Amino acid sequence: MALRMDPDRVIVGEVRGAEAFPMLLAMSQGNNGSMCTMHADSARSVFPKLAAYVSMASTGLPVETINTLIASAVHFVVHIELIAGVRQIKSILEVVDADGSTIISNEVFSRSREGRSRSFSSLRQTSRALLLEHGFDAPGATP
Description:
Elements lengths: L10 E4 L5 H8 L7 E3 L8 H10 L7 H11 L2 E8 L2 E14 L2 E9 L14 H9 L10
Parallel strand pairs: 1-2
Antiparallel strand pairs: 3-4, 4-5
């Protein structure tokens, strides 16, 4: 229904079930900047969880097709944890592609238990250029 309104963005609150399928379809229609939230133990655990939610929609799609849809709709996964009473970014994954039953991703940011962070050195060049175009500024982030 949201696509009929020709939105600039699709923003969905917590995803916990079959609504994941139409949400991914809407997000893969070229609405850059779309987002949703979901509960997961880690950034990597988002992919099987999202695939399971899509399968709850009784689409009959094989997991390979679901993963292709996820890879075309999702560009980044940001995992946030509550650390010492403060929400902090723990990990950011850049979604690269799907290969059968696997989503291929780069961890472009991670925070250790001690609070040290790793740089965005593994970003693909196209993602780095797009982020810079939209105001991302980090040491060594030149395209």
